Amino acid sequence: MKNDKMKQQYRINEQIRVREVRIVGDEGSSVVSTRDALNMAREQGVDLVEISPNANPPVCRLIDYSKFLYQQKKRQKEMKAKQVKVEVKEIRFGPQTDEHDYQFKLKHAKEFLEEGNKVRAYVFFRGRSILFKEQGEVLLLRFANDLEEVGKVESMPSLEGKKMFIYLAPKKAGSAKKSQQARDREAAEAEAKEAQKTQKVQQTETEKERPANGGLFANAKISADALKKLTEEE
After folding, report:
1. C-alpha closest to that of 151 among 94, 111, 97, 211
2. Residues near 124 by beta carbon (within 8 Å), at least 6 away in sequence
3. Cys-Cys with 21: which of 25, 60, 109, 233 at CB 3.0–4.6 Å?
């Protein structure tokens, strides 16, 4: 069915009824009469395929039509494979979610956003817990703030029935703004690595300056000093 639909998109051979066409190929392009183009196609054992009917004159190629359709289908398949499929992942909270559960769900939400998915987080109010809707709003705002490096808020918390939602979308790669805390942590780690590297270099230089048989020389020096002292005492 798809092949039949694709075939209807292009006119070939005698279906092309304009006076002249532009033939394109690996060696360039040229404008010729449609009759001459058809003769060229017959001589080469291929088809005259109109690929751009709205051009002036229409653009055609000399190619095997079956091969042309296969190439078009393959190209569409490759383009479809390159398209990123964005999914919406849900994160559910209670109005009184404990810290351990919060951190667990925060970790998963971060992974979802880093993978390019959207996140829909909500607080579900069961029964009389709807009285704590302000608490739920604070929870969702904290959630969004903790994910500011990887996600951006698409809509602020809103109550829909017994659920309060917030929507987050992934930030583009390289555009995530790091928090001050993250920048300070990275700076401290870099400083520690640099200090460790300097210490290692100094240790290596000290070892190079020390003679291979430094222990023997040290013992010999001590023995000589002791002998000299003993001689002086005598």
Report:
1. 111
2. 92, 93, 94, 162, 163
3. 60
Cα 200 to chain centroid, rounded:
36
% of the chain beyond a pLDDT of 70: 69
Bridge partners of residue 63, in order along the sequence = 47
Name the average pLDDT for the chain: 79
Tokens of 13: 């051979």
Q: For residues 57 and 31, is the Cβ–Cβ distance under 8 A?
A: yes
Instruction: Say how many CA atoms lie within 13 Å of 186 toward its Cβ.
Output: 6
Distance CA 125, CA 5 (A): 51
This model's pTM is above 0.70: no
Residue 28: strand pairing partners: 25
pLDDT in tens, 6-17: 556 788 999 998
pLDDT of residue 182 exceeding 70? no
- Is the torsion defined by CA of 151, 155, 156, 157 positive or negative? negative
